[in-house]
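Running this now, will post back.
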Amino acid sequence: AQDGAADAVFAYDTASGQRVPEREFGLDPANISPAGIWSDGTTVWVSDGALDRLLAYGLRRGGRLPDRDIALVESNGDARGIWSDGKTMWVLDGRRARLFAYDLESGTLEAERVLVGANRDPRDIWSDGVSIWVSDGKARHVYAYRLPLLPEATRGDATSALERARDEDFAELARAGNTSPRGIWSDGAVLYVADSGTDRVYTYNMPDAIDARLGLLALSGISIGAFDPDRTGYTGRVGIGVTSTTVTAVAVQAGAGVVIDPPDADAATDGHQVALEGTAEITVTVTSEDGRRARSYRVGLSSFAAIVVAETRYQTVATNPDLDHNIANFEVTLADGSTVRAGFLDAYNRTGGLRRWGLATSEVIEIETGTLTQFYQRGVLDFHDTGFGYIVERRLAWDYFGGHLGENDQGVEPAPQQAPRGGVQVGVFGHYVTNVDMEGNPTGFLDLFRALGGVEGFGIPKTDARRDSGAAGTLYQPESVGLVRQYFQAAILQITPGSNLAELTLLGDDLRAVLVPGWKAEAAFGPALPLASGDAYFPPVIIPS
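Update: finished.
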């Protein structure tokens, strides 16, 4: 809840209605007329009727994030309620009784739509992705419309009216004493409506026909933790010796449809059977009775029987909550019941820590069967079986771009015939690591290589230190031509232009985009809460799209 008089965002527990003061924060001094609020779980945007933009704040600590502000067009000068699906930000305008759509990433205006004539005092909006509801202070009514589809919605002009969904209206607010409706929000089951006259929040049941939630999800022999109808992603921990599971999935509404994938493997046996060999995930899709809504629940199957936190370090960055992550050591129980140590924190510290790897950009996740992975700004660490046992080691990140794992295999540059001054030959490719480049200019690469774990941290060199030319038969990236660089299997060292300082490139960020194309939508890459020694850990299982 936001409060214009107190210029602050207040937090309440939806179950008990009690204040949660530790989640509250003050607003920017310029944010004196707050009207609408929406969050993606990391950033909070707050509209203001007196400002020409939506102001952005970090959800965890409430700090301002001006780089994420969204500038509004001049005709959207009385911003009120806001809502987003994570791609488009919808902004209600009170004075003009219109709905504006902006691209959430770029802030570009995409569409504008007109509300119905009776909806002349619009206050707030909420959507389930199919319909959008608009509260009206004077009409004492919540109007329902079909949410315009983009980019189709851009084809209409600014006078196009929103399509109504009258059977989804809430028309009995006054009878409940809710005579000054303002902010609205829903969890899919209940619509919450704040009232400025009574200082209360009223609740109304959402129509049964639009409910696409599961009420029960259970998998025999597989632990998924506590089930919540509003949570759609789970990690499934398969019990030792379990080779198949019976999936029990019951929708909240009897009229909703439920489909389980993979299909039933044993039609002769009661229940929906799934053979686990070769199965990476199980999905349950619920379709609402009206056929307009669908919600998919996904259980990613972990390769590990149990994971417990041993030691942990929590990193936090005031200016970027997405970098609030844990770097930890774990005790991992394998499928055969044996226990091994996954020492991510040990490996991070042993090979240079922050200087080598940068900040963690994810929690520990599973993106491949039998492997735990953590992303950092400058590289990636994996816990996996090498054939000689489980270890934590650097992933050969560069090889996904210019080596044998990448589509554009640039191979290895020819080794020099003469050793460069002070050079140390490292690895089977015959290249040297030294403190000067091939032209004799100082680099400091050898000192950094030794300080940050050597081969354990970098892999072996695939070039010497030289200037990227972009010529055939050489290693380079399109943006690096002209820079002094040295390429290793798992890292790139370069001289920062203008400073002559040696640095590691953000190769981990580059690899994240390749291995997990949809990483921005994955909670594991957003802000995390601190772990503690002894905690059971369920690594998110992410199946890259």
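DSSP finds six helices and 38 strands in the chain. More later if anyone needs it.
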